[in-house]
Amino acid sequence: MQVIIHQSKIIFYRIMLCLFLSVSMSAMVLADRCIGDCENGLGTYQWKSGDKYTGHWKNGKQHGDGQLQLADGSQYDGDWMQGVKTGEGKLVFGRRSKLAGESYDGQWLNDEYHGTGTYVWANKNLYVGDWKNNAMHGQGTKSWVDGREYTGSWKQDKLHGYGVYRLSDGTTYRGDWVGNKKQGLGEFIFGKNSQWFGDRYKGHWNQDKKQGKGQYFWANGSWFVGRWKNDKRVGMGKYTNESGVESYGEWQGERFIAIKKKSKQLSSIALINQSIHQANQSKGISHALVVGNNNYEQLGKLPTIMRDINRIGFILEKDYNFILKKKFNIKKSAFFDAINDYKKQLTEQDNLMIYYSGYAYKSEGDCFWLLKKANSLSDTHNGISTKRLLNQLMKFPVNKVLLITSHCFASKKQENHSVNSLEVISTNQNKPMIKNKKSLYSLFAGELINQLQRNTHQLTAFQLSHYLKSVLALRINTHYIGFIKPGHQGIGFLKTVE
C-alpha cells in the first residue's frame, strides 16, 4: 500500500513539473525578447504580438538598415531612423493584411510614403511618381490593367493640376484637373470606340462638362467656335464647314440657325492660321519615348531618375505637343518591341525623340544602356546596344529622329540612311548624373528641363546641345552629332502657344 502511495506521489510531482515547465515556456514565447545587440548594434527583437525586427539599432531604436516582419505576414525591408521608416524601403503586405497583395517601393519619411515611389495594387494597377504623407502628390503616372493611364499632377490621391488621361481606345483628355474632374482649359479627343471617333473639343471645362468658350472639330474637317453650357452649345457662334464656308448664327437646342454666310475669302489672320495649320500637317506628329532605369538589383537605386523622367515627359507633352510613352525599368525585349512598333506606326512625316537615363557602359565602338538586372557596370549582356539602336533608327521611314541621353552613345558616322535627319545629344558619362544641389533633378536633366521651359518659340537640337555644352562644360563633356540629308534640317522643339 505504501509503495502505491509513493508511486502516485511521483506521478503527481512529474505532472506538476510538466505543467510548470509548459507555463514557463509559454511565458517565454509570449514575452518580448532580444537576440544580439538591440541597444547599439545589430540584433533581432521579437514582440509578443508576433512582430519581429532584424537589423541595426541606435539608442534602443531601429536605426539604419533593417527588416520588419509583421504577424499578418507583411514585410518591410529598408532604412530606419530613430525607430521610424525613413529613407529607401519596400513594404509588401501579407496574406492576412487588409491590403494583401499590394506593395510600395520607394522613399519614406516618418513611417509614411514620402518622396518618389512605386505602388502596386493587388489587381496589378500601378502608380509611379511622387508621394506626400502616404498620398499620391506631385507628378506621377498611374496605369490601370484595363488600359487606362493618367500622367500629370496629383494632390492628395486626386488628379489635380495639368495632366493627360487616356483610355485604351485612344480617347484622350489633356488639360487641367481639380479634384478628379476636368476643370479649366483642356482638349478632349474621341477614341476609335466612340461614335464620335475623330472629333475633338478644345476649350474651357467645369466639373467634367464643357463650359465657356471652346472649339469643336469634326472628323470631316468642319469646326465650330462659340460658347458652351453644361456640355451643350449655346448662343452665338461661327461654324465653318469642310469646304471653308463660314456661317454665323445661334444654337437653339441641337440646331444651328445661320444668320450670315461668307464664302471662303479669308482674312489675313485666317490665312496665317491656315498656313500654320498646313505647316503643322506637313510636319506630321512628334512622338517621344522616355526611358528611365532606377531600380537596379546590383548597382544601387537612383533616386532622381523617376523625377527626371516624369518632368521631362510632362514638358514634352504639355508644352511641345509630343505623344508620349514613358518606360521605367524596361526589359531589353520590351524596349526593342517599342522601337519596332514605332517603325510600323510612324509615317514619313512623323518625328521621334528618345531620351534615356540610368547606368551605361562604354566599350570599344559601342555604348550599352544597362538594364535593372545588370550585375556590374560592364555587364553588356543586360544592356541595350546603342550601336544596334542607331542602325535600326537609320532605316526608319520617318522624317526626323533625336536621341538625348546623359550618358555615352555609339555615334559612328554613316552615309546611307532612310531618315531625313538623325541627331544625337550625349555625354562621355557611364555613371548616372549626380543630383544638382540647387534642383530636384540630376545635373544633366535639370539643365535640359530649364532650357525647354525657358524656350519661348523654336529651339533646334543643335541649339539645345550648344546650351548644354556651355552650362555643363566644367563638369561634363556634352557631344552633338547630326546625320542630316542635304536640303533637310534637324528636329526642332516648337513651343505650343495657346
Would you write up a description of this structure?
There is one protein chain. This protein is of the alpha+beta class. Among the domains are: 31 residues; 84 residues, Histone H3 K4-specific methyltransferase SET7/9 N-terminal domain (Single Sheet); 215 residues, Rossmann fold (3-Layer(aba) Sandwich). The strands form four sheets. The chain has a 20-stranded antiparallel beta sheet. A six-stranded mixed beta sheet has the order 22-21-23-27-28-30, covered by helices on one side. Helix 3 packs parallel to helix 6 and helix 6 packs across helix 7. The chain is globular, with a radius of gyration of 31 Å. About 7% of the residues have low confidence.
Indicate the CATH architecture of the domain at 280-494: 3-Layer(aba) Sandwich
Query: Which range best describes the helical content: under 10%, 10-25%, 25-40%, 40-55%, 55-70% or over 70%?
Result: 10-25%
CATH classification, class level of the domain at 280-494:
Alpha Beta
- Count of discrete alpha- or pi-helical segments spanning 4 or more residues: 7
CATH topology of the domain at 280-494: Rossmann fold
The whole-angstrom Rg is 31 Å
**Helix-strand makeup class:** alpha+beta
Tell me about the largest β-sheet.
20 strands, antiparallel
Termini separation: 110 Å
Strand content: 35-45%
Low-confidence stretches: 21-30, 261-283
- What is the strand tally? 31
Overall mean confidence score, pLDDT: 79
Shape: globular
